[in-house]
Fold this protein.
Amino acid sequence: MDPASLPDAVKAHPRLGQWLDIGTDGGVRAYSGKVDIGQGISHALRLIVAEELCLPPQRIEMQPASTRCSPDEAVTSGSLSVQHSGAALRCAAAHMRETCRHTLALRHGVAPDAVTLAEGVFRVDGQGLAVDYAALVDAQMLAGAIDPAHGRMAQDAAACHRDSQRPDIAAKVFGEFTFIQDMELPGMCHGRVFRPRTLTAELDPTAAQRLVERLRTSDGILAVPCDGVLIGVIALSEYALARAARQVARAEASDGLWSGRADVPTADGVVAWLKSQPLESSVVLERADGGVSDGTERGTLYRAEYDRAYLQHASVGLCCAIGQWTGGGQDLAVWSHSQGIFNLRRDLALAFGVREAQVQVSHAEGAGCYGHNGADDVAFDAAWLARAALGRPVRALWSRADEMGQAPMGPAMAVAIEARVGPDGVLQSWQQDVWSQGHGTRPGRGATPSLLGAWQTASPFPVPLAVNAALAAGGGSQRNAVPPYDIASLRVLNHRVLAMPLRVSALRALGAHANVFAAESFMDEIAAQQSMDPLAFRLAQLQRAEDARAVAVLTEVARLADWGGSRPATEGWGRGLAYARYKNTGAYCAVVVELVVQASVRLQRIWIAADMGRVVHPDGARNQLEGGAIQAASWTLCEAAQFDPSGIRSTDWESYPILRFRDVPQVQIALLERPDHASVGAGECTAGPVAGAIANAIADATGIRMRSMPFTAERLMQQALAQADG
Amino acid sequence: MAQAIRFHLNGQDVTVQAPHDQSLLDCLRSTCGLKATRLGCGLGQCGACKVLLGDRAVAACDTPMEAVAGQHVTTLEGLGTRAAPHPLQTAFFEVQAMQCGFCTSGMIMTAAALLRRNPHPSQDDIRRALDDNLCRCGIHNRVVQAVARAAG
């Protein structure tokens, strides 16, 4: 056995019983710390276990994640669930299968290879008996450590269920599925926390007192707990709570409950603001001669700057949690759609001054989650409210305005690139500078709780500044800041902005969206200057043996999209190409976008070619690739958070429009399957290439080079005029 | 003050006590215990709470109970069952037309209203009908495909 080959999650949770055991119906129960956040991951994990155990997928019961019984696998993020939890479950299942085989072989005095397995039933050659997992797995086996050195046995029947369908989908189309928003516990009441719209605001005690007295005497109100700048309401019904919310809104409009201004940039001054703040600059990567020009190199120097706006999560569902204190107020149970139930448990314990062992967090599915949203914060709200509910469970639900105005935003970014191209059309040097706040303020990682409400009580914890993970762990703003091409001289710098007037944190793909947009736009700008085809120019920088998978996705997407084929006569028609390998270590993804520019941009078609190694559930992978592409198209074309010193102003769907049915292009996908390579995630790899390909298609259609996202009709006009003047 | 309101819900005659400013959405979820209709914004902007009022798809969050008196209301629970599924339910399952599925109920009800007034819609008709239903997961194309399949 080679301990180095153990997946990290198995090193942390080495016993078989921490991953798998036998259910009451004789099927296999599987435990994962990764959770369903709309991506259907539990089905992919189920298929991995089913494949290793040679069992039909319906015999694998994925257990809902809970701090009580699941392995701690930190956060469900970064397109890592199949890569991490999948590898662990594959390892655990192979161990269970082979341990069962050996047990049976020993029992009958035969060699292990005389034991065959099909459809979950073991048979010994030449003997009539058939034994299933339930008859072979025992407590001793479950307590044993997982040995990773188990290969597939040639005599087993191959089980392939990769085309099977997610079981939750039927429940959802028949209205049987219980989202966390639909859960009801005995005695449950309904609560909401009302709070200011900036992190520095103060409460007007006189106005608050007037409001609280009115609320306390309103019908259906159980309690009105107050602490610091927080005003809580616990009601018997959602109806009573909605009435209370209208009272609070009226009081805020007439008396101004909270005041305090945030030192935010102006709408068109974000890039200047990012660069003028205190910065923590660091070298992400430096190689060869450092890319610093001494003015004597041959070739041509190019330079350009790009940026993106602050983005909002804007899930269609509302953040929700249920909290309940039992044991005389000593023990806290929380139901949450958090991406990281163990991290949430840790921060709840810190916030409420109890031991982690006193807190249990159980995962319940919410609406789609695309990064660090308000799920953890509303869990604090539910727990905080429940302290005033005398042992009753309290359901806390954010409003649409909370959802948009209180959750962290995805940080704005500015990216400057300078590159030199030799007379042979090959990139010689590349310097990329990134300015952005950190992309992480997630719970569970600091000395103090990272939960909104914990910063707003009478004895508040400090607001942590957003940080970036190390590049080896995926990075934050520097994610994909290193271009994927063969460039002799490379220098990449990250400038972390040390200010956070409004909350920011992780949004799907983190820095990859803006970094790939910048690099891939720049590649096209250089190609145009060099009079080279964008595909040919990229392929010229991908000549190493290790570039073969990159070349394959680029070539495949070009074939799919008939790149280089005839151009339709449609006015304003254009197409663009872009490529990236997500995180420089994950999925290879190339994209072609076809669009028409009139007053605004209308996407027509998107082609995606992706190589994610071994694909577990092709339909799920395609779904994630397409969904990621459409969301990224929405960010790129439509989205920019609006704010002023009083807080975020874009707090509904009219002020924060996203892509709609009539705007969504046709999408065609090619999966380049590599069964001999490790599986990597699908959900985020399209984000950067889609943004770059849209910008390049607009330039192809109109000559207008959009360097600032989003590409709204207004920005398009501004840039057209600026280029005409320039 | 609460008032008694009588209407037809998923084929059954019901009478509920509804406060004067209660929305149909709150009544469905809290009073009637039908949770498939979901709250997304409470502003009539996202379509997650679409139900059929007669043959029309309406936002239940934006529909006062007074407007429901004497009317036929259909929610996802009343559209079809596993034993007798509505063609849209079959098609959404076959196409696996969701990621998180939170907005699915509103989309199916909007599509059901479309198929009642236009049994053979074009792709453009489908996209137009669903334009007020928001989806953040990016499932739009599969939904259009599912509705087209249900229409036959």
